[in-house]
């Protein structure tokens, strides 16, 4: 009887351990550091599985991870930071980590999967902002007011993100500005090559925007997104699909969506 009871306890323990096994998938990741291309050799370590790797010359890495695993990212010039793997990251199997330097130390980290929701008001809740130490940045300039800094395209980008709910010509740029977040951290040549390749492959609008983005930002029902894309691709000027024409393309799609929905 005692032997039988012991055998049952062993089986129960084995079943419990099996149930606690975490399913891990291979995550394709990338570390991006603003204003520098020196992203090689950053340590990426899964503290939950005790396995790690390092980034290559492009800042890319591969690591096995499961839901709620803790990933440590560290380098000599930055403080060690931790990332908790979410369900969205597991489903997309992709992770991008942006490191922002502030006076030679890690000041902020922004984590996002490549597949955003498409609604910037929701995605912005994942981000934090900070006020820079102007005294450290000015480096002893006596009268900063004597210098005139004209607004440029960087200023416009900041305004479109931070001033939530603002509209221009009837379009909500808060909801579409997220499509330009990732390109800000990539080389212009890479983005241009991708758009050219997608266009040459006949992807047209499919090579630039996802179905969910088109549905949420232009009011196209999910069941009609495919039809709308075919409708646009028949008459669209191919120049609108080129790099640098993003705003013109958004305006064009806004007008065409109204015509399409009235049909």
The rounded Rg comes to 24 Å
Instruction: Report strand order across the widest sheet.
Output: 4-1-7-8
Total beta strands: 10
How many helices in DSSP terms? 11
Distance between the termini: 79 Å
Shape: elongated
What does this structure look like?
Keywords: Signal. This is TonB-dependent receptor. InterPro entries: CarboxyPept-like_regulatory. Residues 1-19 form the signal peptide. This protein has 263 residues and is an alpha+beta fold. It folds into 2 domains: 24-115, Immunoglobulin-like; 153-262, no CATH class. Helices cover 38% and strands 22% of the residues. The protein is built from 11 helices and 10 strands. The chain has helices spanning 2-19, 87-92, 120-123, 134-138, 153-162, 173-176, 181-184, 188-200, 211-218, 225-235, 246-262, and strands spanning 25-33, 43-46, 51-54, 60-65, 70-75, 78-84, 94-102, 105-112, 167-168, 171-172. The strands form 3 sheets. The chain has a 4-stranded mixed β-sheet with strand order 4-1-7-8. It is elongated. Mean pLDDT is 70; it is low at 4-8, 15-19, 102-106, 138-142, 158-162, 165-170 and 181-188.
């Amino acid at each position: 009887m005692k032997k039988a009871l012991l055998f049952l306890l062993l089986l129960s323990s084995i079943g419990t351990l099996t149930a606690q096994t975490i399913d891990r998938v291979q995550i394709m990741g990338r570390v991006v550091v603003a204003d520098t291309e020196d992203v090689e050799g950053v340590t990426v370590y899964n503290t939950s599985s005790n396995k790690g790797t390092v980034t290559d010359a492009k800042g890319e890495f591969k690591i096995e991870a499961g839901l709620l695993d803790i990933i440590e990212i560290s380098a000599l010039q930055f403080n060690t930071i931790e990332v908790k793997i979410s369900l969205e990251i597991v489903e997309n199997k992709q992770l991008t980590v942006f490191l922002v330097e502030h006076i030679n130390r890690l000041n902020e980290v922004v984590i996002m999967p490549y597949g955003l929701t498409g609604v910037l008001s929701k995605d912005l809740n994942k981000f934090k902002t900070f006020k820079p130490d102007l005294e450290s940045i000015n480096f002893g300039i006596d009268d900063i007011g004597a210098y005139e800094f004209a607004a440029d395209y960087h200023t416009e980008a900041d305004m479109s993100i931070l001033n939530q709910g603002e509209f221009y010509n009837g379009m909500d740029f808060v909801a579409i500005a997220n499509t330009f977040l990732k390109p800000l951290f990539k080389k212009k040549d890479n983005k241009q090559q991708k758009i050219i390749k997608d266009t040459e492959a006949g992807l047209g609008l499919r090579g630039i925007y996802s179905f969910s983005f088109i549905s949420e930002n232009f009011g196209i029902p999910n069941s009609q997104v495919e039809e709308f894309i075919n409708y646009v691709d028949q008459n669209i000027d191919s120049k609108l699909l080129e790099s640098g024409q993003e705003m013109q393309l958004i305006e064009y799609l806004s007008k065409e969506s109204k015509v399409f929905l009235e049909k």
